[in-house]
Amino acid sequence: MTTRNFRVNNGISVGDVVISASTNTITGLSTTTPTADGDVVVKGYLDTRISALSSTSITQGDSNVTVADSGTGTVTITVDGAATMTHAASGITVGNAISMTASNKNVTFSPTGTGTVEIAPAGSLTMGTAGVTTTKRGNIVATTANQTINLSPTGTGTVAISPAGALTINPTTASAMDNVVIGANTAKAGTFTQVTVNGSNVNTDISPTGTGTVTIAPAGALTMGTAGVTTTKRGNITATTANQTINLSPTGTGTVTISPAGSLTLGTSGQTAAFLGSVRVNGDITVDGEQFIVNTTTLSVEDNIIELNRNISTNSQVPTFSGLKVNRGETSSASEQDVFWVWDESALDDGSSLTNSPGLAGGCWTALRGTTDNDSGPSAISSQESSLVDIRCRVIYATATSAQYADIAERFAADAVMTPGAVVMFGGAQEITETAEELSDKVFGVVSTQPAYMMNSGAGNNDSHPFVAMTGRTPVRVTGIVNKGDRLVSSSVKGTARAARTGESINPFHVIGRALESKSDAGIGLVNCFVQAKN
Fold this sequence. Notes:
Blueprint: E1 11-14, E2 17-20, E3 25-27, H1 43-49, E4 57-60, E5 63-69, E6 73-79, E7 82-88, E8 91-94, E9 321-326, E10 338-344, E11 364-370, E12 386-388, E13 407-411, E14 423-426, E15 432-434, E16 443-447, E17 453-455, E18 467-479, E19 487-490, E20 497-499, E21 513-515, E22 524-532
Parallel strand pairs: 13-17
Antiparallel strand pairs: 1-2, 2-3, 4-5, 5-6, 6-7, 7-8, 9-10, 10-11, 11-12, 13-18, 14-15, 14-16, 16-18, 18-22, 19-20, 19-21, 21-22
């Protein structure tokens, strides 16, 4: 086909269609709805189709999108006469609900920098539905006074709060957190890594009902209370894991008060309950076990009676020894054996020997020593393993039935220090002096070594006021040979006696006593004698 150019001055007319060059119009076109790609659309038809569109809005019925910009621009979406969303440079305002109807879809609010997501409904804000998990990252802040944030899942729903850092709950008024339930009737429900209550006069009550328990299982230490704060615990505190410690450690002048309405049990079999600081028990304390060990420097007891063998009901149950023990070592030497002050139930009560008591009580108080280990009590030894020890005091008021020694002595002031067994007479610078002449009729007595009965014992000591045997058996310092039964008289050796010679003229005032044993050498020695003071 060959193309030809032509010029039209006024227009072209083809059937009903007129193209006017002078008016720049095309008339006579069809106004019906176009049906094919080559169909021409006239203005009248197009105007009926875009009547809801303007330069600032798109409208359809009661719904439209309006753009306004007179310096601060906004885009407003109105649906059924209600503004549902407004876009501005400062943010997006939603005037109605946002619904996610499709499954497996996420709605993410992620402001950058210091930006925030602010949701300010006039009524309530509901996040999530049954069976749907709602995740919140960042802060939820109620910026208006007297506003409430409710986390209220229904049925078996739960609210899980899992911050990477700390969870802080700061109620500003009393009872602002009433009826907060943490955990459920399932194992390990309601687990916290850290719970901190800041502010004065704030109470934290953890009160499970029924058979519920509160389990606190820190990896490190658990601290309850601070200085000046009272911590009250109702119910049981249980360390469920082996080798765990519960420390109640008030500082300064603080105290830990435990006031159970029933009984207080500390520790179980094989476990040790330790107390640091002072412990005061208001009421009775019962210790069940084998030993009650007190590791103190001084034990002070206010009671006037200390009871031993409390659970003994019959005499047959009484142990052999009941009393006190003093640890002195663990060897068998007499100086390191443990010593006891005990009631000896095995001691005979007939007065037949020194170890027996005639008190008619079926035993006697006894001071003894024996070999035991450090953890053994008085009952760990027997009468066969023990030995009696001395008791020292100022005055004993008792009924004597026997004496270990055999003379009666009294203290007298001496003019010099005298050795045991020295023969003395009245004279010298004090009351007595040692004899120094043959056959003196001024002889008075003999210095006793261990008197059975000591008179005037408070007059002085053995150096200034030695005991002088008045009568009885005592060692006497003698020079020369002595035969048993010889009478003893003074010699020229100071403080020394000799045997009276056969045919020697003597009288009773010369005689010191009678020898109870022989002495075969010519030197000076001690001889047991029966003596009696001369007047």
